[in-house]
């Protein structure tokens, strides 16, 4: 699998990943903007814009027309908004590639932004805000993000608030699109059973509307100094008290970003060893040996200059403190090769775990587009699956310990808890 990148004079980047004999093709339009670049008075506009483009475009002048166009060839469409990027995709049979490409590019670059639909969609999004708040397994990640990324543009929730969503107008959307949906801030990935020639031919059809505009410019990538304002010299603890029979918690640390992280593969392996699967250390210790939780998962999230490393635990209120304590103990062991005691077999298993998951993802054209698109948008350069595999294979045990020593420090620590707890004191004492 070989990816081909082309940058047009306007700055628009096209990445084509031909996958011969694959019956589908996924076209994804990526914009390098998310909640971290919002004016706080308009928080949630990135996510709201993702919604509103599905309400109609120049060629497909209503939500019904857009959905009927997709249904006419049995395609799939969706979108997602993050803290630093927004993506829109259409997955289609290879024979209908051009149709799928036309739909996704027209709705993103030529949205009608109907005023009536804006007001209707505000109600939808406010219901979505309530739904997330009422879903502890989701909401705990939001409040963890606010704590671990304190003093950073990443600390704010992507969806915004009811007040800020209510304040957004049609003109706000028009201004937002003009500022961020410009050629130099756009990446298009096309993955599947099409050739580079087919992909570039499709791009030529939208040049008149997207590739013009020499005065447009890509919003500057934040510097590491901007992203990393001084961290507080104490752990961040947040408890949301709710009368529930469960406790949901995330304990973790401020991590690495894509741009200035030379140890990203070691961080991935650290995550795999600690909590990447059902045979991982934290899963085994917390659930299998001690019975402290029914759900345990460790993950890491990377942005341009910042990131997080965290473990989610779903447990009973009584067992929550012991679960936090045990997770922290497992973290601490990895800061030194001697205490980590990573055997050759465990080290090899972690590497195969990561490579295996990557290879499984390569079976899906939408996943392939995502792998290449996210790297290009956030890191500013294309990272291929073969480069990722080489990176994983190159990791040493000392590099894993180096990442653990960098991450697992008190001034980087954050804990978010949702459950029937009256105060934060018992958790603060644990940290």
Give a count of the beta strands, DSSP E runs of length 2 or more.
Answer: 11
CATH architecture heading of the largest domain: 2-Layer Sandwich
Shape: globular
- The fraction of residues assigned to DSSP E strands is 15-25%
The overall average pLDDT, rounded, is 92
How much helicity do the residues have?
40-55%
CATH class of the largest domain: Alpha Beta
Largest sheet: 6 strands, mixed
**Rg calc:** 22 Å
Could you give the order of strands across the largest sheet? 1-2-6-3-5-4
Number of domains: 2
Q: Assign the CATH topology of the largest domain.
A: Cytochrome Bc1 Complex, Chain A, domain 1
Name of the CATH homologous superfamily of the largest domain: Metalloenzyme, LuxS/M16 peptidase-like
Order of helices and strands: EEEHHEEHHHHHEHHHEEHHEEHHHHHHEH
What would you say this structure looks like, in words?
There is one protein chain. This protein is about 45% helix and about 20% strand. With about 425 residues, it is α+β, with helices and mostly antiparallel strands. The chain has two domains: about 5-210, Metalloenzyme, LuxS/M16 peptidase-like (Cytochrome Bc1 Complex, Chain A, domain 1), CATH 3.30.830.10; about 230-430, 2-Layer Sandwich (Cytochrome Bc1 Complex, Chain A, domain 1), CATH 3.30.830. Strands 1-2-6-3-5-4 form a six-stranded mixed sheet, sandwiched between helices. Helix 11 (about 265-275) crosses helix 15 (about 345-360). The longest helix is centred in the N-terminal third of the chain and has 19 residues, at about 115-135. The radius of gyration is 22 Å and the shape is globular. Residues about 210-230 have low confidence and may be disordered.
